[in-house]
Amino acid sequence: MASKQDPRKARIDDYIDQNLKKVFSELETDEMPDQITDLLSVLRAQDKALQDKK
Amino acid sequence: MSDLDPRDELVTHLPALRAFAISLTRNRATADDMMQDAVLKAWTNMDKFEPGTNMRAWLFTILRNNYYSSRRKLKREVADVDNAFSDTLSVKPEHDGRLQMADFKQALNQLPDEQREALILVGASGFAYEEAAEMCGVATGTIKSRVNRARARLSELLHLEDDEALELTDTATIAVVGSPGLPA
User: Fold this and answer.
1) ipTM reported for the complex, 2 dp
2) Contact (CB<8Å) A30/B155
3) What is the pLDDT of residues A4-42, one digit of tens each?
């Protein structure tokens, strides 16, 4: 990542990466929206219907 | 790599896929639409996924290709921003750490899509430069350059070159990142 010759830049990059990870994991803990869980239910039901036909 | 049925494995990647979608689009409604399309496309094209390869990378690639393709069609990249990063944040003025995070999110929002995407893939999602390059369909050097420019821009926006600013943010970050109940 940051140059080994530049500890200050390494420190800034580290600060940025820490915050990025924090933002990303905050978003990951969001509840999944209904439109996605509903879609998964439909897709699973379709797969099951196809399997039952075989 | 995984004994899971690929469709079951897909479900395990959805929280990360949504985080990536929101990071990329900066708009929850657009992110959810993009995600819906990506999940549908991945599910119905599961036979094209190569077992043993990185499913998360495959899903992210489907989503970002879909996003850039529709963005080109709609030409609305700026109009759609809804400060999505801030939606989950309850800003308490007395808490420096939270204010610093709010500033960080604001700055992240201001980066061009391609730079923010590269930074999220490498800095937050842990993909190697080579993987991120493949996902974005560009050379590894291009991803490195985007990440460097993104970091430089964030550093500028947040005044991180200023000694005092970095001291302050370090303390504040430790206060927030070290809070109980937050993922490591």
Assistant:
1) 0.86
2) no
3) 568 888 899 999 999 999 999 999 999 999 999 999 999
Neighbours of B181 (CB within 10 A): 4
Interface contact flag, A23 B85, Cβ < 8 Å: yes
B167 lies within 8 A of chain A by CB: no
Please give the residue of chain B at the shortest CA–CA distance from A35. B36
What part of B 139-158 touches A (C-beta under 8 Å)? 151, 154-155
End-to-end, the C-alpha distance of chain B in Å comes to 24
Q: How many residues does the structure list for chain B?
A: 184
Written as six digits, the tokens of B8 are: 């079951």
